[in-house]
Amino acid sequence: MQIIVKSHHAHVGAQLKERATSKLERVERFYPRIMTIEIEFHENGKAAIVKHRVNVTATAKQHVMRASAAGPDPMTAVDRVVEKLETQVRRLKGKVTRKGRASGPGAPSIRTSS
Fold it and tell me: Rounded CA gap, 23 and 36, in Å?
């Protein structure tokens, strides 16, 4: 999995980049088919309470998941966006595994009629 860190009107230090990368690597354990994760930091100088915004885009073979969160500091925003992305990845994993199972009205029955 490749993690790309970008910034828009914000300075991303080495420590912040490393911590954000380590938190986003946890998402891969839920759905190992994720190929790339792009994390983008934005800083808004005008708003006093919500100053930092983080956008994350995770790309799998046939799926794209996006999450966005804001906070007073960049690490809080990263924590919030990781929670949102983990929820989306868990839901996707559930949909993919359910779709592969042989169940439903057209699936063959376990019971055999004699």
Answer: 14
Flag whether 14 is in a domain.
Answer: yes
Residue 61 belongs to some domain of the structure: yes
Residue 13 lies in a domain: yes
Given a contact cutoff of 8 angstroms between Cβ atoms, the answer to whether 35 and 70 are in contact is no
Backbone angles phi, psi at 48, to 5 degrees: -85, -40
Report the relative pairing of strands 64-71 and 52-59 from DSSP bridges: antiparallel
> Is residue 101 predicted with pLDDT exceeding 90?
no
* Residues 6+ positions from 50 with CB-CB distance below 8 Å: 44, 70, 71, 72
102: its two tokens: 């042989």
Structure token pair of residue 101 = 């199972």
Residue 108 within any structural domain of the chain: no
pTM: 0.78
The answer to whether 24 and 40 have CB atoms below 8 angstroms apart is: no
